[in-house]
Specification:
By secondary structure, the protein is of the alpha+beta class. It contains four helices and seven strands; from the N terminus they run E-H-H-E-E-H-E-E-E-E-H. The protein has a single domain, classed as Roll (PH-domain like). Helix content is 30%, strand content 39%. It has a seven-stranded antiparallel β-sheet with strand order 4-3-2-1-7-6-5.
Length: 128
């Protein structure tokens, strides 16, 4: 999995002025009921990093969205999960959890898990 489109669950997201016009208080309701907002974008692996880049539209509908970079070395486990709507990649980290919904989550989680294991076997100063 070098690159995958989908949605990441991001906590504490606030609607921009445009976002409030388009969705009213939906962002606040989702934050309180789900613990975050599903933000569309792309998840990709770059070297030793996993990077989530929010979509152009979500960057305009929400305040302060920026790329999220996760060091593969900080990943504890990678699992695939399934809910009513879609599959998800659930990544447990040293400091929390990152969830990413996408098609083909099972195979993507398996591939990402292999990349994490490969990263653990590399010397600390050796970039892939």
């Amino acid at each position: 999995m070098v690159s995958k489109s989908g949605s990441a669950l991001i906590a504490g997201v606030k609607a921009s002025r445009l976002g409030r016009i388009v969705s009213g208080d939906a962002v606040e309701r989702m934050n309180s009921s789900v613990g975050g907002v599903w933000i569309g974008g792309r998840l990709s692996v770059s070297g030793r990093d996993l990077v989530f880049s929010p979509s152009w539209l979500d960057r305009r509908l929400h305040e302060g969205l920026a790329d999220i970079t996760i060091r593969l070395s900080s990943v504890r486990t990678v699992q695939a999960a399934r809910d009513r709507a879609s599959g998800a990649i659930v990544i447990d980290l040293e400091g929390g959890r990152f969830c990413f919904r996408c098609n083909g989550a099972g195979s993507a989680a398996e591939e990402l898990s292999k990349m994490v294991e490969e990263t653990r076997r590399l010397p600390a100063d050796d970039a892939p």
